[in-house]
Amino acid sequence: MTSTFPDISLSTERLVLRPYDEADIPELVEMMNDDLVTAWTGVPYPYTESSARTFVTTTGPAERRSGRGLVLAVTELLTQRLVGTVQLQNTDWRIRGTEIGYLTASWARGEGYAGESVLAVVRWLFGTQGFERVEVRTAADNTASQQVAQKVGCISEGVLRNAGIIRSRPDDEPQGRWAETRTDLLVWSLLPEDVDDADDPDDPAARSAVGDGYDTGYAAYRDYAGYSAAAHRR
């Protein structure tokens, strides 16, 4: 029998992480129609209401039911405004390991929301779900996403050469057509003891892990409507 994640919501001091619902569709469309999202992810461009509805009502929930992963909308606790997405993917229930991706809306960057939401999810995975490993994959040039990984305590493990796909425009055509190019992927990991170290109140790095503005980039993130991602395997 396939193991699956529960249908859950998590909260932090500033955020609520919960399943997407149809009321999120307008904000999701706005969030995904951003040049950085287009560049670092494999989501369709332009990102339409139809794309968002399929993701919210069909493909996102199917990830949880199938046991492959979990998709959570990240919202502000006070305003309930959508600030981003955290998702688990490529889950291996035998080894209790999974891959995490994160994405932040353009207006919410610089507030530390990515690190705060990622730490909430990994603490839940290690603390109540019995997981032993969480992996992050970032495009080689995506320094903002790498800073998030470092700030939450991830350990760098190596490079997957030419293993990802990103999109770019010619420097002299800022409004030109997007073109796909290959990129190396950096592999990062978190184990339970890494998060224990990050929780140490006497550790300055732990105190800066959340809310210090390093959520301006994206991890390898996949839209489950069938599009390739920065972490798409060859």
Concise structural overview:
This protein is of the alpha+beta class and 234 residues long. The protein is 29% helix and 28% strand.
Summarize the structure in words.
The protein is an alpha+beta fold. It has helices at residues 25-32, 35-40, 49-66, 113-128, 143-151, 192-198, 204-207; strands spanning 10-11, 15-18, 70-76, 82-92, 97-104, 133-139, 155-168, 179-190. The protein is globular, with a radius of gyration of 17 Å. It starts with 9 loop residues before the first strand and ends in a 27-residue tail after the last helix. Residues 200-216 and 224-234 have low confidence and may be disordered.
Layout of helices and strands, plus pairs?
Layout: E1 10-11, E2 15-18, H1 25-32, H2 35-40, H3 49-66, E3 70-76, E4 82-92, E5 97-104, H4 113-128, E6 133-139, H5 143-151, E7 155-168, E8 179-190, H6 192-198, H7 204-207
Parallel strand pairs: 5-6
Antiparallel strand pairs: 1-2, 2-3, 3-4, 4-5, 6-8, 7-8
Helix pairs in contact: 1-3
